[in-house]
Amino acid sequence: KAWYKKYRNSAGFLKFSRPGISGDKAIIDYGMYFDCLGGMGYFVVLNKSGGKWVVESRINTWVS
Length: 64
Prior knowledge:
Elements: H1 2-6, E1 13-16, E2 20-22, E3 25-34, E4 38-49, E5 52-63
Antiparallel strand pairs: 1-3, 2-3, 3-4, 4-5
């Protein structure tokens, strides 16, 4: 609730984990939070291709 008091026009916020990296693969956990009670979370699997990280898949892990 403190977030919405400070940022009254905010639709919410994002939270990211540190990436877990092994060679040319990585995974990140992130969540989107809005309206104090709503949100959703994902695992994102990345693949390093041509020197750039590319999203290989996104897996929904929770919904509120």
